[in-house]
Automatic annotation (TrEMBL):
This protein's record includes keyword Methyltransferase: yes
Listed Pfam families: Cons_hypoth95
Annotated InterPro entries: DNA_methylase_N6_adenine_CS (IPR002052), RNA_MeTrfase_RsmD (IPR004398), SAM-dependent_MTases_sf (IPR029063)
Protein name per the record: Ribosomal RNA small subunit methyltransferase D
Organism: Enhygromyxa salina
GO MF, any single term: nucleic acid binding
Top-level lineage group: Bacteria
The entry's keywords: Methyltransferase, Transferase
Protein EC: 2.1.1.171
């Protein structure tokens, strides 16, 4: 999957600020950094995986260009408890050029919630790319609603898994 993502995004990765949600082993963020991304934030809820990721970044000598946040992605991105859309929780200033979204396949509600929070709380740079990975059911892709400013550019099937590439076009927001 890594090569399917990054071969398609070659030039867009260089210099990018990357947000890897549901980071797991961190393979996607690490690949982005190896291909020239400027900085990556890896969000992982599981404490053991978060500690592993921190050690992994140190071992690879890239901890200066990447940071691990142990948190629930939906809460981090959202406006919980008066926080400014996750900024107070460590996402820092600026917006992301590339966002990787790969939640547990069975939790379809996370896709829409995370995509909505990314747009609503202005975490995305203009022209940002969001890559979502999901499992197809009986050969069909799930119906994942996303905000009007996100446009599907491509879907790449890989057996029972698919990658969808979305582009953030902020001038294309929906009217109230």
């Amino acid at each position: 999957m890594r090569s399917a993502i990054f071969d398609r995004l070659q030039r867009e990765v260089v210099g990018a600020r990357v947000l890897d949600l549901f980071a797991g082993t961190g393979a996607l963020a690490i690949e982005a950094l190896s291909r020239g991304a400027a900085h990556a934030i890896l969000v992982e809820q599981q404490p053991q995986l978060s500690r592993f990721l921190t050690r992994q970044l140190d071992t690879l000598g890239i901890s200066g260009r990447a940071r691990v946040i142990q948190a629930d992605a939906r809460e981090l991105l959202g406006d919980r408890g008066g926080r400014a859309g996750g900024r107070a929780a460590g996402l820092g200033p600026g917006r992301f050029d590339l966002v990787l979204v790969d939640p547990p396949y069975e939790q379809l509600d996370l896709y829409a919630a995370v995509l909505d929070a990314l747009v609503t709380h202005e975490h995305l740079a203009d022209d940002a790319v969001i890559v979502i990975e999901y499992q197809k059911h009986r050969g069909r892709s799930p119906q994942i609603p996303f905000p009007a400013s996100l446009h599907s550019e491509a879907v790449r099937d890989h057996g029972q898994t698919a990658l969808e590439f979305l582009r953030h076009v902020p001038s294309q927001t929906s009217l109230p």
